[in-house]
Amino acid sequence: MIPLLQMQKTESARPKRAVGFIYGVPMDQLRLGMLQYDPVWCEISTNQRKVESLLAGAPETDLLVLPEMSLTGFCMDAPRAHLDAAHHEWFAELARRHKTGIVYGCVEQGGNRSVLLDRSGARVGSYDKRHLFGLGGEPSSYRPGVETPVWHFEDWRIRPSICYDLRFSYHYWQSATEIDLALVPACWPASREAHWRLLLAARAVENQFYVAGVNRIGVEPQQQYVGASLLVDPNGAVLCDAQSEEGIFVNTISLEVVKRQRARFPFLRDRVEA
Predict the structure, then answer these.
(1) What is this structure's pTM?
(2) Considering the domain 5-13+31-266 in this protein, what is its CATH number?
(3) Cβ pair 253, 240 in contact under 8 A
(4) Are 105 and 85 within 8 A, CB to CB?
C-alpha cells in the first residue's frame, strides 16, 4: 500500500553535479508533486476545501500537478464548469503560500484548459485540449485548442497535454528533442486503465522524456475512476504508481537522466516526421 503522503527519490534521479540551486534544490532537479483525489462533481467550493486539506502538511514541491478540470471533475455543463477570477486567484494564492509552481485544469474562454503558474502565482503558460473526447460529448460543449506549446518552468521544458490527447502520439512528437517532461492531467475512466498505463509508458519511451499522468479517483454520474497516476522515466520505468490512493505523491526527477538516456540511445535522430 502506498501512503497518502509519499516522497520517493530514485538513484537515477540524482545528478553527479549541480551548477546552482533554487529553493535549496539543484537546478537540474525537480520535486514533482502529483495530487490525486476524489472531487465532488461540479462542487467548486467543496473541492477547494479538499485540495487545501490534502496540501496541509504535505511534502514540499517545485511543481504541483492537479487532474483535468481540477475543481469540477469532467463536467460537460460549461457554465457550471467555468472558473471565475476569484477561483483563479485562489490557485495563485496556493502557489505563493506553498512556494510551488502549479498546473491546474479549468474551463476558460470556451476551452478545456490547463494553466501553469510560477511560484509567485503568475500565469506563465496555458494550453487548450486539442483532442476532444467525442464519445463523451466533449466537442458539443467545448472548442478544441490549436496550439502545441512548450512551457518553460525554471530549467525545465514541458509539453502540456490533457487526458484524451494521450492517444495521439503526434501531439508529443513536435519538438520532442526540446522537451524534458510531458504532463497529462486527466479524468481517465477505470474501464480503460490498461490503456492509460500503456500509453503513458509508450509516450515516455518513444520521446525519451519523463511523463507524468495525473488522474482522479471516485465516481461521477456516468463514470468511475481508479486513479493510477503514474510518473514514468525516459526509459519507461515507473517511478511512482499512486494506485487508487488519495494524496500527494512527490518524486524528484533530474534533467541529467533525460540527457543520459538520449546520449546513450540517440533514437530521436532517426525519426522521420510524417
Answers:
(1) 0.91
(2) 3.60.110.10
(3) no
(4) no
Query: Which residues are CB-contacts of 177 (< 8 A; sequence separation ≥ 6)?
Result: 262, 268
Does the annotation mark 240 as catalytic? no
Say which residue the cell 490498461 belongs to: 194
Q: What is the pLDDT along the chain (274 residues), one digit of tens a residue?
A: 344 444 443 333 433 334 465 565 667 999 999 999 999 999 999 999 999 999 999 999 999 999 999 999 999 999 999 999 999 999 999 999 999 999 999 999 999 999 999 999 999 999 999 999 999 899 999 999 999 999 999 999 999 999 999 999 999 999 999 999 999 999 999 999 999 999 999 999 999 999 999 999 999 888 999 999 999 999 999 999 999 999 999 999 999 999 999 999 999 999 987 6
Active site residue 106: no
Among the listed residues 12, 13, 18, the one whose alpha carbon sits nearest the alpha carbon of residue 253: 13
- 154 labelled catalytic: no
> Could you tell me which of 107, 97, 40, 28 has the C-alpha nearest to residue 64?
97
Catalytic option among 42, 50, 75, 129: 129
The grid coordinates of residue 235 equal 526509459
Indicate the domain borders of the chain: 5-13+31-266
Give the dihedral sign, CA 125/159/225/216: negative
Instruction: Please tell me which residue in 163, 187, 245, 256 is annotated as part of the active site.
Output: 163
Task: Point out the catalytic residue in the list 50, 68, 106, 220.
Answer: 68
Angle between the N-to-C axes of helices 44-55 and 85-98, in degrees from 0 to 180, rounded to the nearest 10: 0
